[in-house]
Specification:
Helix 2 crosses helix 3. With about 140 residues, the protein is mostly helical. The longest helix is centred in the middle third of the chain and has 36 residues, at about 70-105. The protein has 4 helices and 4 strands; from the N terminus they run H-H-E-E-H-E-E-H. The strands form 2 sheets. It has a two-stranded antiparallel sheet. Strands 3-4 form a two-stranded antiparallel ribbon. It has helices spanning about 1-15, 15-50, 70-105, 135-140, and strands spanning about 60, 65, 110, 120. Strand 1 and strand 2 form a beta hairpin. It binds zinc ion. The site of zinc ion has 8 residues, from loops.
Length: about 140
């Protein structure tokens, strides 16, 4: 339990809570925008394509129950669009962070001598340990 509380403290201290809160608020607002987009713009247009169908009116009466599958379809479209947008966003973010990581990578400054397996300077042409010529070896293996 102590470990859990410490983890929780770390979690708050790292500012993850703020990130998460911002994410939830933006996510909520974004969800409303997508719902509105689907309900008020996309579905009427799809309705026209399908020959003047109003999705929110689509329903089937089963006994005494009215099954409003049109509104359900709108929710499915909402979900698909949100899932798609999140997928694209995550892909873009991981692309950017990958780039950032690659830029952070430092050029290697050491290599291993193929003869004595000692670690030597990357631009050495002769091994300081076994005195083997490295420049010519690397040239040959490079071809
Ligand atoms: Zn060597």
């Amino acid at each position: 339990m102590k470990g859990f509380m410490e983890e929780f403290k770390d979690f708050i201290a790292k500012g993850n809570v703020m990130d998460m809160a911002v994410g939830v608020i933006i996510g909520g607002a974004f969800g409303k925008i997508v719902s509105s987009l689907v309900e008020n713009i996309l579905m009427p247009l799809i309705g026209i394509i399908l020959g003047g169908v109003n999705f929110s009116d689509l329903s089937v009466t089963v006994g005494t129950a009215e099954v409003k599958y049109g509104i359900f379809l709108q929710s499915v479209f909402d979900f698909l669009i949100i899932a798609f947008v999140i997928f694209v966003m995550i892909k873009q973010i991981s692309k950017v962070t990958d780039k950032f990581k690659k830029e952070e990578e430092v050029e290697p400054t050491e290599k291993v001598c193929p003869f004595c397996k000692s670690t030597i300077a990357v631009d050495a042409t002769r091994c300081p340990h076994c005195t083997s010529e490295l420049g010519s070896v690397k040239w040959k293996s490079g071809l």
